[in-house]
Design brief:
Keywords: Isomerase
Strand content: 5-15%
Distance between the termini: 47 Å
Enzyme class: isomerase
CATH superfamily of the largest domain: Glucose-6-phosphate isomerase like protein, domain 1
GO biological process, one term: carbohydrate derivative metabolic process
GO molecular function, one term: carbohydrate derivative binding
CATH class of the largest domain: Alpha Beta
Number of domains: 2
Number of strands: 10
Helix content: 40-55%
Largest sheet: 5 strands, parallel
InterPro entries: SIS_dom, SIS_dom_sf
Oligomer: single chain
Length: 407
């Protein structure tokens, strides 16, 4: 039995004592929800086609991929696909930036704002939606959420310019960290990006699901062993869509260890421009590798450099088709490729590879004595962000009054 399954098999009192009533099960079950997330998107194929076509035809058009925290990182895994499949500029933006600087994002454009939200109850998510409507008369909204009863979903359903896609309620993680919610929102976003050719995506979905199950089965032993070593910081590296994988993975390890393990992230090329300084003898390096040989050449050269300079405590390589040439630069190698299938496009594999970051956060949290379902002993972080007030920017500009926005 692999370590993840072993934790799931514990009885309820044991899980409660360890603080793992939810997180291991949510990591384990997420892959089984991917097909449902795709079905829920394609159920709205006609409306989505009309929506994307209408935005494409507008002048000064733009797609925003918006969210708060992990929900923002969903966008970083998707923006390449959207740019390739639609003749529209695409930008990832945090809802926090939209709230504080709306005039920078909604002036003189006709955007489609795609909002990703686990709960849809964070103040920034609801506030950004309301502020967007204030600043743009012709804005359209697509809301992808794991909580059909959340504030954002309830508000958007009453707006004729909005479409809400609810994912299975099981994607609405009950643990602190977003795991199943993240991968399923990425999957739903991938399906949206393929709305003009859904058959092409659904043909690849079984291979994606098989790769996800393979990671859960084969990787947890390696990841647990790594998590129980004494590294003190970690750096996650990814190119293209896997830049989003790296960002999300760094957050998973950092938040599930309540900040005790400080983490960084970057692309393989950009890390040389200063950030490489954080890689010392106590640093775990996690490399999410591309299957594209052109991209992998750059990644290989950095891994050689790290090894030659004797940087890092341990290096984990994750990807498809990791041959001897590249595997020798990793201390641990996790190859997700199926022998009978060609490699999946790199743009589709973030939901698979990100589970390494989730598992690393889970096992390191337990190793350090934290409770993964609620690792913050001081209550600094919460499942849904608290303490944020969102103010009406129009009223402040006109009257100098701080008036809270109520969704």
């Amino acid at each position: 039995m692999n370590p993840l399954s072993a934790f799931i098999s514990l009885d309820d009192p044991q899980k409660e004592a360890l603080g793992i009533q939810y997180t291991p099960q949510e990591i384990h079950d997420q892959v089984d929800l991917w097909a449902s997330s795709v079905e829920r998107v394609f159920k709205y194929r006609e409306r989505l086609t009309e929506l994307f076509n209408s935005v494409s035809e507008k002048k000064k058009n733009l797609i925003y991929l918006a969210g708060a925290g992990t929900s923002e990182f969903v966008g970083h895994c998707l923006q390449g696909l959207f740019r390739q499949n639609f003749p529209i500029p695409v930008q990832v933006v945090s809802t926090g930036k939209l709230v504080t600087h709306p005039e920078e994002y909604f002036a003189h454009i006709n955007p489609l704002m795609i909002s990703f939200a686990r709960s849809g109850d964070s103040p920034e998510s609801c506030g950004a939606y309301e502020i967007a409507n204030q600043f743009s008369d012709s804005i359209c909204h697509l809301v992808i959420t794991c909580n059909k009863e959340g504030g954002l979903a309830r508000r958007a359903r009453h707006d004729p310019n909005s479409l809400v896609i609810d994912l299975d309620e099981k994607t609405n993680d009950r643990g602190l960290a977003m795991t199943a919610s993240f991968s399923n929102m990425v999957i739903a976003g991938q399906a949206c990006s393929q709305i003009h050719s859904p058959e092409e995506y659904t043909q690849k979905l079984p291979q994606l699901v098989a790769a996800g199950r393979k990671v859960l089965t084969m990787a947890s032993e390696v990841v647990k062993k790594t998590a129980e070593s004494d590294f003190q910081r970690a750096v996650f590296l990814g190119s293209g869509s896997h830049y989003g994988t790296a960002i999300e993975s760094h957050l998973k390890l950092q938040e599930l260890t309540s900040g005790q393990i400080m983490c960084g992230y970057n692309t393989f090329l950009d890390v040389r421009h200063g950030p490489k300084a954080v890689i010392n003898k106590q640093t775990l390096v996690v490399a999410f590798l591309a299957s594209d040989p052109y991209v992998r050449r750059y990644e290989l050269e950095l891994l050689k450099e790290i090894r030659q300079q004797e940087l890092g405590k341990t290096t984990i390589l994750i990807g498809e088709g990791l041959d001897d040439e590249i595997s020798r630069y990793g201390d641990e190698v996790i190859d997700i490729k199926s022998d009978s299938q060609p490699a999946l496009p790199d743009s589709l594999t973030p939901p698979v590879l990100v589970m390494i970051g989730q598992l690393l956060g889970l096992f390191k949290s337990l190793h350090l004595g934290f409770k993964p379902d609620s690792p913050s002993k001081t209550g600094v972080i919460h499942r849904v962000v608290q303490g944020v007030k969102v103010y009406d920017p129009k009223i402040f500009t006109e009257k100098g009054i701080f008036q809270e926005i109520r969704g």
